[in-house]
Design brief:
This is Roadblock/LAMTOR2 domain-containing protein. With 122 residues, this protein is of the alpha+beta class. The protein contains three helices and five strands. It has a five-stranded antiparallel beta sheet, with helices on both faces.
Length: 122
């Protein structure tokens, strides 16, 4: 099992997690993914790369400095967390985590996502 697959398994162990992926921002390709969120995780990863790219473009357009840490999308039954990786080794990647809104503790899940994301390496 690759190191990225180990990270996916660790993310899926977060209470309420139903899907996780490590995604390349520029291509939208999931480098590793797992879980069963009830939809095609690879399609969602590609779509969310558009979200990240759009935010990066907007930040550039309005001359907003800094780096994106995370983006949260709240749906009726799910939370979608996007954690942008900003180290030299992982620049250009993000972690995508899908949580069941009924069973996840959002604060704890975000904390664990940040902890795991800091250790992602290629």
């Amino acid at each position: 099992m690759s190191q990225l697959d180990n990270f996916i398994q660790e993310l899926l162990s977060i209470e309420g997690a139903t899907g996780a992926a490590v995604v390349d921002i520029s291509s939208g390709m999931a480098l590793a993914s797992g879980g069963n969120p009830g939809f095609d995780l690879n399609v969602a990863a590609a779509g969310n790369s558009n979200v990240v790219r759009a935010k990066l473009r907007t930040m550039k357009d309005i001359n907003l400095r800094g780096e994106i840490e995370d983006i949260m999308i709240t749906l009726e039954g799910q939370y979608h967390l996007i954690n942008v990786l900003n180290t030299e080794e992982t620049s250009g990647l993000f972690v995508y985590l899908v949580l069941d809104r009924n069973t996840a503790n959002l604060a704890l899940a975000r904390h664990k996502l940040n902890t795991v994301s800091k250790r992602v390496s290629l």
